[in-house]
Amino acid sequence: LVGQVVALNRVQKLVKSMIGIVIAEASLLKFALRLHQALATWEHQATAWMLDAPAINVDETSFRVDTKNHWIHVYSSGDITLKFLHRNRGKAAIDEINIIPRYGGAIIHDCWSSYLSYHDCNHGLCGSHLLRELTFIEW
Q1: Is residue 71 domain-shared with residue 47, that is, in the same domain?
Q2: Cα dist. 109→2, 20, 90, 126 in Å?
Q3: What pTM does this model have?
Q4: What is the mean pLDDT of residues 123-128?
Q5: Cβ atoms within 10 Å, residue 77
């Protein structure tokens, strides 16, 4: 729930309504950290699967953190979806996440120039983004 931007006090109320116990905010944060650490092995394996996929879909969306704009970078292929929070949207973030720089398949994206700067992979344009940009069609 913390990852879904539910305030800690609301998580406390939800847990109390379900099991009748109030869990301290510090405990909730500790649980989230332990989960993050436990998922590290899965994330490493999922990244390896992503790098072996013939195509991956990539996108990013803004997300407020402490009143500052950050970006959630999304990488998906088949049943695997990876999300990375980064303070930047551009090439620096993509390089730090380090999936696209190591990828040799096709990335499907919104034609954003940062994605187009990678030349060791193929590029495909996202149909949903193309339809959003479409202003006129003649039959």
Answers
A1: yes
A2: 28, 46, 14, 5
A3: 0.78
A4: 93
A5: 21
